[in-house]
Amino acid sequence: MIAPMRKRPLSFYFLAVFFGLFVLFLYGPMFAIFILSLQGPDGALTFPVRSFGFHWIASLFFQQQRIGDFGAAFQRSLLLGFIVMAVTVVVALMAGLAFRQKFKGSSFIFYLTISSLIVPSVLISLGIGIAFNLIGVQTNWYSSALGGHLTWTLPFAFLIMLGVFNRFNLSYEEAARDLGASEFQAFQHIILPLIAPALIGVALFGFTLSYDEFTRTSLISGARNTLPLEIFGMTTNVTSPALYALGTVTTVFSFSIIAIAFLAYGFFAKRQQP
Amino acid sequence: MLKGWKSIEPYLLVTPQTLVFLLFLVFPIATIFVVSFWEFTGYSMTPAFTLDNYITIFRSPVSLATYLNTFKFVGLVWFFTLIIAFPVSYFLAFHITSLRWQIILFLICTIPFWTSNIIRMISWIPFLGREGLLNKLLITLQITQQPLDIFLFSNFAVVLAMVHLYTLFMIVPIFNSMMRIDRDLIAAARDAGASGFQVLKEVIVPLTIPGIAIGSIFIVTLVMGEFVTVRLMSGGQAASVGSLIRNQIGSLQYPLAAANAVVLLVITLAIIMGILRLVDIRKEL
């Protein structure tokens, strides 16, 4: 593209530097533990790096008795993340469909959902914990913690769905109906493909927010820890780069999930182009 | 027949979401409220109606100091996230003109949000620790002879980590507000002879206020109930209301923890009401 180069104001360069520093602030520490996790056996918690190697990453997988049961906690968090993701997508999609028309009580449901965002997380944990205690039900990661996570993922998912359906062009659906499609057929062949990219976004929110959640799990996960709780426990008794190795492995895992979500998003968004 | 189905359809569709919030939001908070009036008898709680828990909170200098400390964290984190988020959003919204680059740079800011907070806190150890890079730098520059302990395990570290974790919650709403500003307004202000600074002050800042308000609500909510960052980054030395509640649960003092939670919720809601009274955010929703 040949366009006349517009002269950039001085503020552009100042703000560009500021933005660069901000990105460094965001990613610098993460990059540091990534490097420190790739040390040899003589590695320490701080720089300088004396030797490079995969000693600490390997120790996660082969010396579990020294580091804690991170494998089981990882499996638990993974499963919980997928359950939260599935429930979030289905429930928020249903609510989004309902909100396409005005109905009595809709603003109550709207404020109920949004209010979940402005209640400090510690109240959710404490409240669910005490409530389960009073009813006499054991807290567990797949019951009480699942509920706690949904109070955090659903408002975000709901807001995304509202945004999508606000911009949704109703004429496609009406055209399908005019051609004789049933309600379900219109949903399956018209609505679903059109909102698929947004559903990927909702799924990404649902999974990652649950997978990394600490506060809304901490008092209500029952006897067995999820991964963030396990890592928090490690911070007090593990003083080797194994801690960083675990950080690196879980962050790489998070990044892969984000990458998969973006690929899926791109795939569904592309299919919509004529 | 079909007409009747149409009218109950939205209610059926919205039932699961409503149930989730009634079961895991409304019911637990109602429980907290009720239990905050119960008695604690040394090892268990018994139903009662007493204001003792609240009186304990307001009479204890320790808990009042903890509340003050929490407000300090909220104020500092709010201030720093705002002065970082505003220029970052401004740069993205007004200086980056290609949509493609706007999306890429915005995603760069967003991706850490989808990774673990605990890991992001731990990642400050190599920088702030006794042997960390910051101390090494200060010693090399001969600003100090001995490594300083004040960086890690201090209020400074707590605020730094919270700013690191939560700035995104300020960036997204501010960026969103800025993207909605009609570019013709800015051009009109320029044509009328406004300087760059005047455009910022008279057009952009006023139209960004709703975004700032939403970001501020997020920051207040997130920081008011914090206990993980406080616990981890201060090494247990600093206290917040969240960590106070956490400790009281540790010693099974549920009614006292519940009373603290009620006070915390009331203060949080009061601040949010105050913000909403000053700023009309409905257009942003």
Uncertain parts of chain A = none
Distance between the termini of chain A: 24 Å
Q: From the coordinates shown, what is the CATH architecture of chain B?
A: Orthogonal Bundle
Sketch the major β-sheet of chain A: none
Q: What is the CATH C level class of the domain at 68-237 in chain A, in words?
A: Mainly Alpha
Low-confidence regions of chain B: none
- Helix run count of chain B: 13
Under CATH, the homologous superfamily of chain B reads MetI-like
Overview features:
heterodimer; A: 274 residues; mainly alpha; MetI-like fold; 73% helix; B: 285 residues; two-stranded antiparallel ribbon; 13 helices; 2 strands; 75% helix; globular
Question: Would you mind describing this structure in some detail?
Answer:
The complex is a heterodimer of chains A (274) and B (285). Chain A is mainly alpha-helical. Chain A has a domain at 68-237: MetI-like (MetI-like fold, Orthogonal Bundle). Chain A is built from twelve helices and no strands. The model of chain A has no long low-confidence stretch (mean pLDDT 86). With 285 residues, chain B is mainly alpha-helical. Chain B has a single domain (61-284), classed as MetI-like fold. Chain B has helices at 2-35, 52-59, 61-95, 99-110, 117-122, 125-128, 133-140, 155-180, 183-191, 196-224, 228-234, 241-250, 254-278, and strands spanning 39-40, 45-46. In chain B, helix 1 packs across helix 13 (254-278). The interface between A and B is large, with 84 and 77 residues.
